[in-house]
Write the structure tokens for this entry.
Amino acid sequence: MSRPAFLCVLVLTVALACHQQQGTTASVRNVITQGQIDSTGYTNVYDVIARLHAEYLRDRGAVSIKTNQHARAVVFLNAQEYGIPETLRNFPAGGVSEIRYYRGTDAVSKFGSQYGGGVIQLISRNR
């Protein structure tokens, strides 16, 4: 193999590895596993999220200058809308196998246009 061809293959390999690594990091940041939930020792889901990924709970600010509506995440239990993030204080951590967070555009494409503030999806242990 010639030197230029070898360098081209090397650059493509490194670029592909970096691209795959970035995708993995993003998906890991958006999921809290059952092991992580259990390891916190907290009894409710709100405290688990506040400890591990507080950014899921943040208000995204005003949606429009004309309204005082804010872009907040909405909680889903499996595929059903459950409520606002504060309702998670009453949801037992032991009932959840996974917590997934969908940012604005991902939430809109998966759940609908009204969820631009994001979605916190709880996957129950006994589905």
User: Anything to note?
Assistant: Residues 18-25 have pLDDT under 50 and may be disordered. The beta strands are 31-33, 74-77, 80-83, 96-102, 119-124. The helical segments are 3-29, 34-40, 45-52, 104-111.
